[in-house]
Sequence to fold (320 residues):
Amino acid sequence: MLGWQTLTIYAVLVFALSFLLGHWTSNSAKWDRVDLLYIPLAAMGILLISYNPAPFDEEKVKQLAERRAQEAFRNSATISVSADAGEISFPVELRKSLGSLLRTVEEANALCPSARVSQYCRATAEMVQYTSKVSPVFDQQFENDGDAATAVCRGFSQEVGKMIEAGGVIGFMARDMRREIAKNSNRYTSRADSIVVREQIRSFRDRQLRSWTRHTTSEEYEKIGAYIGTAAEHMQSFYYSSFVCTFLKPVKPHTFNPDSYAPRMTSEQKKYVANLIARDKSRAERAQRIVDFRDNLWKFILLFALALKFGAARAKTRHL
Fold:
């Protein structure tokens, strides 16, 4: 927070400079027109005092994402593959619900304050650059469901590759997700099998959180837990968009054991935790400085306006 010491020093400086300027330039006619600057500045300061941006309701956004995830989960049961013809059913309703789920990340990012003070908003800002590339594909028109599935999977694969290349928490999670998909992409042939992969995707966030909490100290997790939780939540939504990809090359059914897909924390990730804490702390401090400046700007403007008036008063009384 901006301390009173800073404001005191600023006030002393601008009033002293204004006084000296009025003293040395008392014969200048410009001091007669100082109100043309003083009044607009005072009005601007008053307007900034009343500026009160709507608070970001993180819980409301999370509830919206959860509702859309449940809808996508229900609609995902409509995917099927014809064992004889090899034709895939990828209904428009499911495409819309998956696209809507991904756009939740974009909507959350738009609602976040520009300063990105919270870990939720910082993680969302990183994730949206990937989800925003895939979500429009779900709204496109295709000649058949097979073409739609191919287009979605192509976009999904490209963005996962970019995530892994970028590294960081999202990159590590994307790597775990791609390993799971590789293990399962040739195994689903029936609706019963689809339940397996749906449950696997549905548990992705919780499995990631268990992994990170297990391999970080309580002190470390306290500092970056919200960031990791948000990244896992958005990654799970992104994972849903890959659901149809598991049906493109069906081979044989498979049972899902959550424990066998528990992500492993690598030594690389452990080293990254310390860097993540330092980087996130730096970002949080920078964001807070922006907020402090914005919230206190009116004080600087009003002090400057009053200092101008003080300088004008000194100029007028110089020769009395």
Observations:
- The longest helix spans residues 267-317.
- Strands lie at 80-81, 88-89.
- The chain has two domains: 4-53+296-317, 58-284.
